TrEMBL record, chains A, B:
Record-stated family: Belongs to the LOB domain-containing protein family.
Stretches assigned to the LOB domain: 5-106
InterPro entries given in the database record: LOB
Pfam family, one: LOB
Entries under PROSITE patterns matching the protein: LOB
Protein name, UniProt field: LOB domain-containing protein
Amino acid sequence: MGGNSPCASCKLLRRRCAKDCIFAPYFPSEDPHKFAIVHKVFGASNVSKMLQELPFDQRTDAVSSLVYEANARMRDPVYGCVGAISYLQNQVSELQMQLALAQAEILCIQMQHDQATIVDSGGIVCRGSASPFLLASTIKHLFVNN
Amino acid sequence: MGGNSPCASCKLLRRRCAKDCIFAPYFPSEDPHKFAIVHKVFGASNVSKMLQELPFDQRTDAVSSLVYEANARMRDPVYGCVGAISYLQNQVSELQMQLALAQAEILCIQMQHDQATIVDSGGIVCRGSASPFLLASTIKHLFVNN
């Protein structure tokens, strides 16, 4: 951060670390890997431009997300972060399917219960909220959304 | 792709498009925006290095994921792709909670049904798989995981 202790970026780029160095607040000399990885993936010049275009209070979050993205690209050079997005989208679809099935099961159980109540009482009794219409719409929702 | 029609990358970088240009198969001249955006976020030199380090059959996927990441960074300069990952992780947590609740509801309904059966028949009848132990473990799972 100026003077005797250059930040990790200026150290790697072998340049003088000015007092107003744009990297210094986010890339301390104790953590050289953090800058090295974003430099390798995005390039120091692009990172500098991206930070300059942001207000100060958003730069820490931007650096964190760039480091996260760069690490993901190093671990998975083909898909990077997009691999994680794809995995999570599949997990969301799978959970939506399981939830729709569980909701359909709740309606099924309630319908069975209602039918058993009608038979047991020998008359027309309506207990619970399940109906064939609701069950059909839940199953339709399940197949339309997956 | 060499000769009279340079690829989008060579056109933007104002250089001759060689026959073995690494960008040409993935950045056709008809789609200049595709290269412009990865160049702005990652830099042409970094994209070239990343592609060179990959076998040919993985380069198309790598370019697609780089374009996706670059677009996400342009839309959201602070969080980029990481914003989407965070959103999806929250969605997964929310769905896991809803699923655990639905599963607990199934057990509750089954237990109520079992109790009604015992009362109706005036004896000890065991119908369904619900038990207080299962219900407790489902609820415990719900609170431990959320």
